[in-house]
Amino acid sequence: MSRAAIKTGVLAGVDVGVNALCGASEFTISGISANMIDANEFGYAANNKVPDGTYDCGTISIPNVFKDISNLAQIDLEANIVSGAGYGPDEIKFRRDANSYYTAGTGGKIYVTKIGGGGMKRNGLEPTSYEFQISGALLVLRPALVSIAVTPGTPSKAIGATQQFVATGTYSSGSTVDITAFVTWASATPAKIIITAGGLAVGLATGTSVISATMLGISGNTTMTAT
User: Fold this and answer.
1) Per-residue pLDDT reduced to its tens digit, 112-157
2) Largest CA distance in the chain
3) pTM for this prediction
4) Are 182 and 192 a contacting pair, CB within 8 Å?
5) How far apart are the first and last CA of the chain?
6) What are phi and psi of 22, to 5 degrees?
7) Are 103 and 82 within 8 A, CB to CB?
């Protein structure tokens, strides 16, 4: 006889691709979860069915979501719900906090059911509820981003010359990743030094500026001098 474990808490949000689907919401998780909450406590699969009949490791229920009906990711999600299509493991992320998230393991799929809805509210928001059923893979916690290092440190360039900066993220697992293309780059003094979205800086006038790289609320910085 199967049994289901229940976990309740506060979910920071749900992402479809890179777009936020919903804000903070109460949630419950049922089913086994070898890497999800506590492996030792769970040992049996929840007796749930999914569209393709593959092994199911549980369901995430999120009530009282205020969804933005003008969000393209939200519209795409609604269309997939109607068609019964499954999402790949990297297409939906359940954020635990600003820096870490749960997602289905490789090879799994996520099926979404709209379990409730409401009328239009102010600012184009509509309250509704969803169930995300994980099929064919356990839900795993991805490591959190701990810090960002920006290199090279304190470079000096002639006016008009360019400098490519690199952002390296360090995660709670101890691993490091080049996240140059994913951070938000900024120059504190753009009248002297400007920087592109890809981390390429150029000096416009003599002086120094702080160059920063930010992602998920975490920043790293260095300074650049234009001579």
Assistant:
1) 887 766 665 556 677 778 888 888 777 777 777 889 999 999 999 9
2) 74
3) 0.55
4) no
5) 74
6) -150, 160
7) no
86, 103: one domain: yes
Q: Extract the tokens encoding 35.
A: 């890497």
Pair of tokens at residue 127: 């309250």
Same domain, 190 and 209: yes
Cβ–Cβ under 8 Å, residues 6 and 28:
yes
Q: What is the pLDDT of residue 188?
A: 97
**Three-class DSSP category at 90:** coil
The number of beta carbons lying within 10 Å of the beta carbon of residue 20 is 17
Rounded to whole angstroms, the Cα distance separating 21 from 28 reads 17
Nearest in space to 128 (alpha carbons), one of 64, 192, 78, 180: 64
Contact indicator for 28, 60 with CB cutoff of 8 Å: yes
Question: What range does the domain containing 105 cover?
Answer: 6-142
Distance CA 45, CA 152 (A): 50
Shared domain check, 177 and 75: no
Q: What does the block give as tokens for 72?
A: 């393209």
C-alpha distance from residue 56 to each of 77, 108, 210, 223 (Å): 21, 9, 50, 51
